[in-house]
Design a protein that fits this description.
The structure is a homotetramer. Chain A is an alpha+beta fold. Helix content of chain A is 21%, strand content 36%. In chain A, the strands form 2 sheets. The first copy, chain A, has a 15-stranded mixed sheet that branches.
């Protein structure tokens, strides 16, 4: 299959279940909500080495948030126990500490709930208040009062939706990946948790040489090893590969993001080939076929 | 004491020793080095709840980096054991995965060293190479080759240098704090690890009401509790307080940052009072007197 | 009338007709479309001293643009003859010169049209091509080929929609104005052409003292002159005023922007009073009553 | 000659004299100084079609500005008469109108001076005041008081310093150009006035086909015309060219910027060839040989 002259590999992305929390951070201006969101979702690229996966889902205008202020929606993804722990820690350390912020649940319809009890920080000076129909705790702090919901919905979402952008040289692949990330930013319900949304170093499970390594470079996708690795997945003429990894609140959102990202990447000059990553289909319950979504 | 009409409290900041690593991240453009640095230094506001404290120290031009590309210097601060673990994890998950990055030691003169062995990720395909006089490992990855030093200097630095910006209302205090952070960004050897460099919610050790809490709101610095708390530290006419917390490679750098930050904050209309935080002088070995540095 | 505890003056904004062109600039990534748009809409705050008024209206995703790439919609506002001249010059100097750009008409339904003939720049090497259903000219340039429509719709819009954000001090007023601009950025069909969307220095027509001046400071709105000017419009307790000036493709868009901006501004602590500017109602055909739109 | 494996053409850049003014814009924070600077230097890419050439030269910390606040230095370049007119208009419309700004002369040593009399805007309410050793006018405005010097130095500088970045494909050339612009941003005394600092469409004087055109595409530098144009300057294997055009306060600054930009560009993968533009050496008095500066 071809799209805009770019070959689309006849393959699928294999993805996995994850628990997802959506937190709405508001602040006096969009910029301050954004700064808190960046800090709260940092060091959260991959569940392999980071405590969770997290990223900015979308910006919200005042008429889309409970307190009528500009906001940013972020997604946190992890196993259920880890998820609660991480949401607590990241809101406590990175949002409660951030100028003018308030925090609201972004999944009010979800049946499963986690408790994020920051109000103990108030040491007895805290009190309850309704804001935009939400039951919140108000905690006196240095810059005035912090307002936050403490009951957050979580849903079973999808982690590891992905595709590869392959280019005739590194800069073409990089700009293709960037265009993909731009497009995915406009899709609701998903994040791309890696730096700038892009993965430069894909990994395989385990290591052939160093048995203590839980993961190591995926030599089949390394362009510089193309001549040295028997089962290389690098087509002729490809000098660089970037992977876009997508986590989302459900499979449809991940599919939409993959489609939007690929449609954008193939418009970038020098992008030559799109593929996707899977493990033979035995590990993850989600198999998203590139041909189906495009 | 007054500066630009703003009262400077007759007090001192109490600060603590910490181990510090400086990592230089380079990339094809400044923007890509910055994106990796942001991810690598996220979720790192306070050692109380985050795995370490971290932030961007400064931008470097190509003639200041070992590989001649634009770069960003970041500082990681923690106890010695935690520091090594965090530098390894954050470089592995947030920089090695980031487009076009390379990584170099930013404290080559330091006697104490930590090993940051990412090359095992290469699964035997890695090799050694000298770049700009530095012994590096080259790891084949999807976007080409990752280059990184693996021997990093660490020094005993200073954590928790601080001052308070107090304003007649919240926006005056916030813009004063922002001006301070802008000024500190130009000082070498320091970071301000909180979101946007600013702390909105100061804490005291422990809690009077909730014994299980390791820290809780510092009611003495809460403007809304001014009438309710006997020993309030909030002067009359103050409606909001922000704290700037500074970590640095040595006491001089922290002092210079505090001086630059305060000088900037007092120029912002509506900033009325500058103070600093301490614990009576019994906890931290560093006592930085505001009158001395201004 | 009060909104969120902030007094809304019982007055109206007086606005004027203007011709408006909407140009869609696309590029390889959103960032490059944005850079071209910033340059093309600079030096365009006020028709009094600038050649036109211009600004960024909104960002467009790939599925909203004729060539499927990310884009930015900009509005240019001026008298009809000046408008054509300015669109030609600004596209020629600031967009055709900008990396990877293409340009499309953003008002295809408009009956009035202007010709923007950049293809002569091709010196005979140019050719015609249909892109996304639009008749375009393709011009060979250094970075490849520039693609552009040359027939642009123009509509009779509204210039000078406005409101004032008044604060108890300068930073409160500034952040209130910033919050207003953030909110207006989400409204289609409008721009705020001043730097950062905000006007710090309002003017009156002519000058009492310097007869050669076409405009001079509006002393009635100067907080520092409150005690010196008989007919001051500055309420007690106000230390700073910012004006948000809005141009739009029609009156409804301007009204919606005013409403969104005011709703956002009144949520900022220290904002105390909202008013609007008019000239007694004799100059502009549009009178937008604050009470009506809120 | 080769640099980092990239061929450096044996040629020179031909540049021209221009008058230059440096204006220092300060504001409450760096961000607000920057916003004013962006507006004031917009629509100023090329003197051919814009009223002047202008751009941001550098950021200044509080200890580098007369009023101790963060600032941005901008350069305006034009013929002497046009320069004065443009500095007046752009400061009046884009800086005086911008929140919290003040303006200072950035060339106090220059013998040639221009008067930029904005104080008439004060309509008699203005007054004089010394700020940081500078004689300034204070004008009451809506957000408080505007402070500005009115006597600006101008020097005979250099316009049109330039080099070409040629890549094996468009994205490689673009990222090479971006890296060059990043590097040049660190050089004092220069600006790159085009959008994002980069020119995508070079021109020749006049037109062969359309006699009314003062300039048209330079077909010798169009990669898509390589096979059609006899005297093409496009080497084999080049798919895209970007030009970096540099204006500066003197020839040394322009040379330093060219050297820094080229050194950065050749480090970007896929950049294959560096050249420079001239008109045979008969037009401009400055001839900057690439071999000399590298």
């Amino acid at each position: 299959m071809e799209l805009n002259g770019v070959t689309i590999d006849d393959t699928y992305a294999e993805a996995f279940p994850t628990w997802v929390s959506r937190v709405i951070i508001t602040a006096v201006t969009e910029e301050w909500a954004y700064k808190a969101a960046v800090e709260a979702t940092g060091f959260a690229t991959s569940a392999i080495g980071c405590p969770c996966e997290a990223g900015i889902e979308m910006f919200l205008s005042g008429d889309e948030t409970p307190d009528g202020r500009p906001g940013v929606a972020v997604l946190f993804c992890a196993g259920k126990k880890k998820l609660k722990e991480q949401v607590v820690e990241r809101l406590a350390e990175c949002v409660l500490t951030s100028p003018t912020t308030a925090v609201f649940d972004g999944l009010p319809e979800a049946e499963e709930r986690i408790a994020v009890k920051l109000h103990f920080f108030g040491d007895g000076y805290e009190y309850q208040k309704e804001v935009g129909g939400r039951k919140c705790w108000v905690i006196p702090i240095m810059n005035g009062e912090y307002v936050g919901e403490e009951d957050f919905g979580i849903v079973k979402g999808v982690a590891g939706g992905n595709f590869f952008v392959m280019g005739e040289n590194q800069m073409a692949a990089l700009m293709g990946a960037q265009a993909a990330v731009d497009a995915i930013a406009g899709v609701c319900g998903v994040i791309t948790s890696f730096p700038g949304g892009i993965v430069a170093s894909g990994s395989k499970v385990g290591s052939k040489k160093y048995k203590f390594m839980p993961a190591s470079t995926n030599e089949q996708y390394c362009p510089t090893l193309r001549e040295k690795v028997a089962e290389t997945k690098i087509p002729a003429g490809i000098a660089a590969v970037y992977e876009i990894v997508i986590d989302g609140i459900d499979e449809d959102a991940v599919k939409e993001a993959m489609a939007a990202g690929i449609a954008a990447a193939v418009k970038v000059p020098g992008v030559k080939y799109i593929s996707a990553g899977n493990f033979g289909g035995n590990l993850g319950p989600f198999k998203i076929d590139l041909a189906d979504i495009l």
